[in-house]
Design brief:
Order of helices and strands: HHHH
Shape: flat
Largest sheet: none
Oligomer: single chain
Number of strands: 0
């Protein structure tokens, strides 16, 4: 049985890369006792990735809103988490006066791309499922005759 195949090779590479890079960076921080800006960036990107995926995965809870409303609510929730996290972090470390703007921009551009990919994929899957349902209904009507 093949665990890695043509269909899942890219996600497997992405997960493996993420696991290895985060693990090695965490190990390096533990050994040296210091966090460099590059290491901090890696952890920040990991947190942003978790935040983006977490927010997007909750779309089913917002189905009563319009698609645009859903996108805005999700985005504003994510930005609120970033603002809160930055305010908390500012109690422990110096944050550049434009740091919050930079963080929001660093999150917003990849989030917009990821959200577009996510919702286009979701729409295509819904279309595929609707087509399957139509075929099932059509086959059911043909058998009744």
């Amino acid at each position: 049985m093949k665990i890695v195949n043509k269909k899942n090779i890219v996600p497997v590479i992405c997960v493996t890369y993420t696991f290895v890079s985060v693990s090695l960076t965490a190990f390096e921080v533990l050994v040296t006792g210091k966090v460099s800006p590059a290491q901090l960036n890696l952890f920040l990107f990991l947190i942003f990735s978790i935040l983006g995926v977490g927010v997007l995965s909750q779309h089913y809870r917002l189905e009563r809103f319009s698609p645009v409303g859903m996108l805005l609510i999700q985005y504003l929730c994510a930005v609120a988490v970033i603002i809160a996290g930055t305010k908390i972090a500012s109690c422990f470390a110096y944050i550049h006066p434009h740091g919050l703007q930079d963080l929001i921009l660093s999150f917003s551009v990849p989030y917009a791309i990821g959200a577009a990919i996510y919702y286009i994929s979701l729409w295509l899957e819904v279309q595929r499922q609707n087509q399957i349902l139509q075929e099932i209904k059509k086959d059911g009507k043909n058998k009744d005759c």
